[in-house]
Design goal:
Helix content: 25-40%
Order of helices and strands: HEEEHEEHEEHEEEHEHEHEHEHHEH
Number of helices: 11
Largest sheet: 6 strands, parallel
Distance between the termini: 21 Å
Strand content: 15-25%
Number of domains: 2
Structural class: alpha/beta
Radius of gyration: 24 Å
Number of strands: 15
Length: 407
């Protein structure tokens, strides 16, 4: 449901004390457009916020949500593609979605607020990029739902309501998902139950499950170079969800209004700023650096500092000749060859880019490819298999919803 945060605020009056339902993707396989955790709200009057498939199954989900609101019981439905019945609700993309629908009853004056209604209200008050997690108990009417701030620092049970249910393996899995910023479904194992092994044997379905959605603070992107290419890259990187810092040692360049779109503009020597941020613990393994200064007096000390860190991506602008010269100088400075091998230089994918805007597309495309194990960087028409690749689960949450007895 975290995907709905930017739109929840204006929707609160529509929910007020009325009934509504939350439909959430709890499992996805094959070519499906949205990941686990994606949600859609349906009001008792039929208004809809959000989308689960881009249009393929929404009508059927609304009908199920109305049924759930009428009888107060949750629903669990699998949607896939069937060529045998072209008119049935399903996914034309050929993938499969499993959707859980949780009804929320109307509020009653003088009674405690229903947990999921309270969670929606809390989420509505957050910024679109604020780190947060939502932990929900599925498969039970009126199940617990708790909002957790700053999930990267989370330790221990998610809430007093869930604490008695989470123990051992399930508690570790929930904590792992919370701290990694992912989403996943974790079965609640009770006494006498057993988890399946790696081959899927010895399955014994448990009771309800916990759906964990976690979002960390946005990853950082450091753009070094207040020039035309930096001006084009900053807004492109923000579209990918990065918290963007523009760094340049020259005040006359860094102070130009065109860089105001950056989350932060810093006037400092690039290598000095990078070292200070690393020492202060403000960079993690998701951070990326784009070196666009194209000036050896800036580039070389900066790349030496950047390649010593465990950043997700380090790219540097320049010709192939410039790159070879940089490699020689970095080797002379004592940078290990395996560290230099991590450098994306010349920066970007070969898209035939020439203008600053096109180069920005090239760089952001390489960023996406660098963080995906399955990227081939070939035209989709020339490839086969799944189109929508998902990041691997942050924890061994490899149980399927079929292994859970929904109530």
């Amino acid at each position: 449901m975290l995907d709905l945060i930017p739109s929840l605020g204006p929707w609160l009056p529509r929910l007020s004390d009325k009934r509504f339902a939350v439909a959430t993707i709890v499992a996805a396989s094959g070519s499906v457009p949205r990941p686990v955790g994606t949600s859609m709200l349906v009001t008792e009057s039929g208004e809809v916020l959000g989308s689960l498939s881009g249009g393929c199954v929404e009508g059927a989900v609304v009908a199920l949500a109305r049924e759930a609101m009428d009888d107060g019981g949750p629903r669990h439905q699998v949607f896939g593609f069937s060529s045998a019945d072209a008119f049935a609700a399903g996914l034309t993309c050929g993938g499969q979605l499993e959707i859980h629908i949780q009804p929320v009853p109307a509020a009653v004056t003088g009674e405690p607020e229903q947990p999921l209604r309270a969670a929606v209200r809390q989420l509505a008050g957050l910024r679109h990029d604020e780190p947060v997690a939502l932990v929900r108990l599925l498969g039970a009417s009126g199940g617990a739902a708790v909002v957790l701030p700053d999930p990267a620092k989370h330790h221990g049970p998610a809430s007093p309501e869930l604490a008695p249910l989470l123990h051992g393996e399930s508690e570790l899995r929930v904590e792992s998902i919370l701290r990694s910023g992912g989403a996943g479904l974790v079965p609640l194992v009770q006494a006498g139950d057993c988890l399946p092994d790696r081959d899927g044997h010895s399955r014994h379905p448990g009771g309800p499950a916990v759906l964990v959605e976690s979002r960390l603070a946005p990853p950082r992107m450091l753009v070094f170079g207040a020039n035309d290419f930096g001006a084009a890259l900053v807004p492109a990187a923000k579209l990918l969800g990065y918290h963007v810092t523009l760094v340049d040692a020259r005040p006359a360049f860094a102070g130009q209004p065109r860089f105001a779109v950056a989350d932060q503009v810093v006037t400092d020597w690039p290598h000095r700023y990078l070292a200070a941020e690393a020492a202060a613990g403000r960079l993690d393994s998701r951070a990326v650096a784009a070196v666009l200064t194209h000036d050896p007096k800036f580039d070389l000390p900066l790349l030496e500092a950047a390649l010593a860190l465990d950043l997700a991506y380090v790219g540097a602008m320049g010709s192939r000749r410039s790159h070879l010269q940089r490699v020689e100088e970095l080797l002379s400075a004592g940078v290990l060859p395996e560290r230099i091998a991590r450098l994306h230089s010349p920066i970007g994918l070969d898209l035939g880019a020439t203008t600053p805007a096109e180069v920005a597309v090239s760089v952001t495309a390489e960023l996406i490819a660098a963080r995906s194990r399955d990227a081939t960087c070939a035209p989709l028409r020339d490839t086969a298999g799944t189109i929508h690749h998902r990041a691997p689960a942050p924890a061994p949450t490899d149980l399927t919803p079929q292994e859970i007895a929904w109530t």
